[in-house]
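Table 4 source record.
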Amino acid sequence: MIEDKIVSKTDLLNKLRAYRKTPDDDNIVYKQKIKKALLSNPYLLYALNEKDLESELFNDKGNINWEWDEKNKKYEPLGEWDRYFGSNSNIRPFLFIPDTQTGVKHYICYQVGFDEIPRHSQINKNTEITFTIFVHGNDRMDKLTGLPRHDLIASIIREQFNWSNIFGLQTKLISSKESMTDNNYVVRTLVFQIYYDINGITYSPFGEQSYIRNNESWQ
């Protein structure tokens, strides 16, 4: 029994922290993958126009503040790009409707979920990834591209995720809608679908190896 292995507060916290790494819960796993994808995209971070973080995104020569990692064959940030992410920052792993504020700030919120299981399947689901983009009305146009900022951000996300295999299965855009919250924010919402995704058949007992479980009963 799992309770036999949980003795102290440290044990309890170690079990909860393990949720970040185990493959059991797609909500957590996919959100981690989204975070990694967004924070490695300098086009997206630029479009958020966060002036306080521009020195992290570009160096003093005006170049993108990253370097090529020959071992992993990809660019790695040199600046603190993770400062764009968090419950009080621009990129948030939950839906957050910003309050009316005088300061100009833009947000990308993302959600993971499903409400449909394909017919004749016990182990599959149709996962949906939703991005909600809030752009403050006082900075609604990107002056250097001439594009509405919420459309620019949406197009960058579309380019990165549509028909990609970021989640291990192909992801496709199924909805793109424009709206507004009030007189302060213009909004665009993108919904991507992972068709016939696996419905949580991996089980990772605390301190043990993960294994596939579908028809077994919970103990």
